[in-house]
Amino acid sequence: xxxxxxxxxxxxxxxxxxxxxxxxxxxxxxxxxxxxxxxxxxxxxxxxxxxxxxxxxxxxxxxxxxxxxxxxxxxxxxxxxxxxxxxxxxxxxxxxxxxxxxxxxxxxxxxxxxxxxxxxxxxxxxxxxxxxxxxxxxxxxxxxxxxxxxxxxxxxxxxxxxxxxxxxxxxxxxxxxxxxxxxxxxxxxxxxxxxxxxxxxxxxxxxxxxxxxxxxxxxxxxxxxxxxxxx
Length: 231
Hints:
Layout: H1 7-12, H2 20-32, H3 37-46, H4 53-74, E1 81-91, E2 94-103, E3 108-114, H5 119-133, E4 138-141, H6 145-155, E5 163-166, H7 172-185, H8 194-211, H9 222-228
């Protein structure tokens, strides 16, 4: 895979001290598999490439937001029945709330990391998800009062309200989906800043979306789809 950066990525990397395809490969491995940046440093050394683990981390922080925007333009539409739930991620030693949703087929809708779990955070999540994916017909949530209050506030602004269902057991599909994200986060040993957490979670979600087959274009491997986002 020989690849040059797009103009958007070229602006991010003013000077390339490593081949761009090597940078892309390291970042893909980092968000796709249970590897730490120190694992990647060792793996590159075995291939004759000397790169510090902190450099790999910087590549991820710079590359992933641009690739995420590219995926947003190529992601398939999701269904109209959503399952929304929250899980918790540790950032700088403190637990933060990660809002996530899938449709009834299990396809990822959106995610949002927030400092707190409350009505304002939930409403921001719903607004962002609807803006990017269109308005659903039904949203299933658990017994969270903040999620219910946020949805009721949104419905008050619309002539056609979203149907709200509160059923813990119907949300098993999103709770199972959390596990794939948490498995990948574990080797990272926690996030040092909220910004880094948000970006790296976006990369993990990006690869998760690709593996689910939610990106337009068929007949390509997950790796090929990831690399195509940089073209």
